[in-house]
Amino acid sequence: MLVAACFVGFLLLGWWQWERAHAADGGGQNLGYALQWPLFAAFVVFGWWRMLRLEAAKSAGTPTVEEPAPVDETVRRGPAVPRYVPPVIEDETDEELAAYNRHLASLHKQDRPKQ
Question: Cα separation of 8 and 80, whole Å?
Fold first, then answer.
């Protein structure tokens, strides 16, 4: 019932915008809306049809595109991601900067999980 009401309402809004586009004070924006509302109506019907199809497939027990096959968790897929290695700081001329970097390195060591 809601789908039918939306469909009819969107088509009526499209017709109203079409009439406004051809009125004396109408313009391109009204023409754009006049073409947009029927697309909304078509989308409502498509969404309703798609929902019915998915529900029928679910009740029949057939797998759909949205339900992928179970994946074996022990198999690694895709490229390996390298672990972050902090850069080695060789320039220790600024003592304050060196102390800050040592502090950051110690925080990084504390945050790393035990392996």
Answer: 53
Rounded to whole angstroms, the Cα distance separating 89 from 28 reads 62
Helix (H, G, I), strand (E, B) or coil at 99: helix
Q: CA angle 106-83-101, nearest 5°?
A: 25
Which pTM does this prediction carry? 0.50
Provide the residue-wise pLDDT of the chain in tens; the chain has 115 residues: 899 999 999 999 999 999 998 888 888 888 999 999 999 999 999 999 999 999 988 888 766 565 566 666 566 666 777 777 777 767 667 788 888 888 988 888 888 766 5
CA distance 39 to 43: 6
